[in-house]
Write a structure and sequence with these properties.
Layout (H helix, E strand, L loop, with lengths): L2 E3 L6 H9 L9 H10 L1 E5 L4 E3 L7 E7 L2 E5 L2 E7 L4 E2 L1 H6 L5 E5 L3 E7 H10 L1 H19 L6 E3 L15 H8 L11 H9 L3 E4 L4 E3 L7 E7 L2 E4 L5 E5 L4 E2 L1 H6 L6 E4 L3 E7 H10 L1 H24 L9 H4 L3
Parallel strand pairs: 10-15
Antiparallel strand pairs: 1-2, 2-9, 3-8, 4-7, 4-9, 5-6, 5-8, 11-18, 12-17, 13-16, 13-18, 14-15, 14-17
Helix pairs in contact: 1-2, 4-5, 5-10, 6-7, 9-10
Length: 325
């Protein structure tokens, strides 16, 4: 049976040094890293012992310090054997998915474990950590999104409006922002109103270029009506975007330049979102930030599953995902 030691085998200083070597925690202040070190529990697992069980919501995230674990599900759509400095349970824990994942110790294993309520408390109290998490999830999602099948049409709010209003007022912006399936569907009215006020309406004519490959990405556009065709450097169509799609959202969150040229295939009405305004709102409204991070985790899991269903292997998870919170 697993044991969680009060007598620590990994001392406080060793914990800080260990966690600081993992991915984006290198960019955090030592005080923030110390918060993780102080809140980690140590789990000891015997060979063959189940650490997390498929079919049960993952309520904890583990980083292996000693031993070997076999994991399948969540961030690992294909079975993976994990060793020291690898993590598991992070994405399904954030996403709150009921199916969880299966993780079994293949040999005597020691982990640093973070329970979900501890992670959420840290994210609420330390916005720098939450911001680091959003940026790294966006970066990982962008890598996977660039493998999208050519000419895919992305339009999550197709048919939401029977016709495009002459003017997108505040109420209509809120309707679009909190549509079913949106990460903000359960956000408070105050947060939604603040977000809606920060996204002014813009209109583009047919054939107008929204941006070109390589340009900076300080903002994004949520399409209300119309279609935008997105092409690569060779002019081939990568995908088309329609109503509800947040065009340019991933690269603007992780600070990377535009990776496609966007040209309006029809007249387009959109809401323009400024990155700094959005991050300020997340800082002011943790419930909205928590739901947004949860949606990012669900979308990344779904994206990796889809890649696996297409017969391709999802890219190995970078260090940023192994302990990015």
């Amino acid at each position: 049976m697993s044991r969680f030691d009060s007598a620590r085998r990994v001392g406080p200083l060793e914990r800080v040094l260990f966690l600081k070597t993992l991915g984006p925690l290198e960019a955090l202040d030592l005080a923030d890293i110390a918060v993780f070190a102080e809140n980690a529990q140590e789990g000891q697992f015997a060979p063959g012992e189940t650490i997390l069980r498929a079919g049960e919501r993952a309520c904890s995230y583990h980083v292996i310090t000693e031993g070997r674990v076999r994991a399948e599900g969540g961030e690992y759509p294909e079975p993976a054997v994990l060793g020291p400095r690898d993590g598991f349970g992070f994405l399904p824990m954030l996403a709150g998915l009921p199916e969880g994942l299966q993780a079994t110790a293949e040999e005597a294993t020691l982990t640093l474990m973070f329970e979900d309520d501890v992670i959420h408390d840290i994210l609420e109290d330390h916005f720098s950590v939450l911001l680091n998490l959003v940026r790294n999830l966006a970066r990982i999602m962008l890598v996977e999104r660039r493998r999208i099948p050519p000419s895919t049409y992305l339009a999550p709010a197709e048919g939401l409006f029977q016709k495009t209003p002459e003017r997108i007022d505040l109420v209509e912006r809120i309707v679009l922002i909190r549509r079913p399936g949106s990460p903000f569907a359960n956000s408070s009215l105050e947060a939604l109103a603040q977000l809606a006020r920060s996204t002014p309406e813009v209109r583009f004519r047919e054939g107008q270029t929204v941006w070109r490959i390589g340009e900076p990405s300080p903002l994004m556009y949520v399409i209300v009506s119309g279609r935008i065709v997105c092409t690569g450097a060779d002019g081939a169509v990568l995908f088309r975007a329609g109503p509800g799609y947040p065009l340019g959202n991933l690269e603007r969150l992780c600070g990377q330049p535009r990776w496609f040229t966007a040209v309006c295939e029809t007249p387009v009405v959109a809401l323009r979102g400024d990155t700094e305004d959005f991050l300020d709102i997340l800082e002011d409204h943790f419930d909205m930030a928590r739901d947004f991070v949860s949606a990012m985790a669900r979308n990344l899991i779904a994206l990796r599953r889809e890649i696996a269903r297409q017969g391709e292997s999802p890219l190995p998870l970078p260090e940023a995902l192994k302990v990015t919170s």
